[in-house]
Amino acid sequence: VGGGGRTNCQSIANEEMQKAKTPYLPNIIGMGMAGPTVYFHGQEEVKRELLPRLLSGEDIWCQGFSEPGAGSDLANQQTFAEKRGDSWVINGHKVWTSLAHFASWMILLCRTDKTDKYNGLSYFVVPIKSALGRGVTVRPLIKMTGETGFNEVIFEDLVIEDKYRLDEVGAGWKVAMTTLAHERGAGMLVTPASGGMSQEKEKGANTSSPNALAEMARNSYRNGATAADDPLIRDEIVRIMIRQEAFRQNQRRSGVPALTDHPMRIPLQYKLVSTEINQDLAQIAYEVEGPASSLYLNDDNAPGGGEWQLAYMNSFGVTIAAGANEVQRNILGERVLGLPKTK
Fold first, then answer.
1. Which residue in 67, 152, 183, 200 is the catalytic one?
2. What span, in angstroms and rounded, lies between the C-alpha atoms of 33 and 221?
């Protein structure tokens, strides 16, 4: 099963592109989240306008969910859209917005009613690039890694037509669940950690692969032996190989409805398990590299081009993105297993 209803051919193609070190797929939010959301909830006119350019890669998309006071508590949105005639006027502040500095469009969850936490939310698609300086401001956020993939986006009296509202007014929470189901479950189709296309430097390591970690262990020498000669390190690498393969095989079940006992279990598990596997991979890489783990991207002597160090620092944020893993466990426990809610 290749994901997105495709045959296994798509999954095989993704893996081969990763091996060939093809460029990273830039429109992962458009392909993996915005596209399905617009398709299921948008008006026909808007679908005809937006989806062809999304699929061709002409338009990059970003996601406007997180705010300074709304992260894992997604319904605590404060960005507000006010209806004025046949248009909406949007004011507010989004943060941790990946790709906003490239994006032409954003999928936006915001508040249209201040009296109801959930039913007061509505969902829009809004222009970014064409509205810069005319209601939209994008500011880059520099991470501790030195990267600038995140941004904050500020809306000041941005005016959009009502046709860009997805579904009914007050149905934003329902539409957001469509987005999140694809964000947490479609990763196998579009992200490098699960067999998609990977961005790698000439010297870089594939930091989502236990095989790459094993190769580094075989070539890392200390005290006259390789790291792979250490039985404890070998054991850790084999354990994570088993975890990743079990994870991959379990993901295949999502393409067979008869094997899926709950519609959200596998998508939720995907996000939870994949982020923790990648974090553990990078942690083991630190052990393999030993003292050389202190070297970073700008050091020619850094093992694997310093990519494992970069992956380790980024791995903590990924467990928070798309809903913190602690929240994912609560959802799985309460909604899938039927356990009582936490107090």
1. 183
2. 44
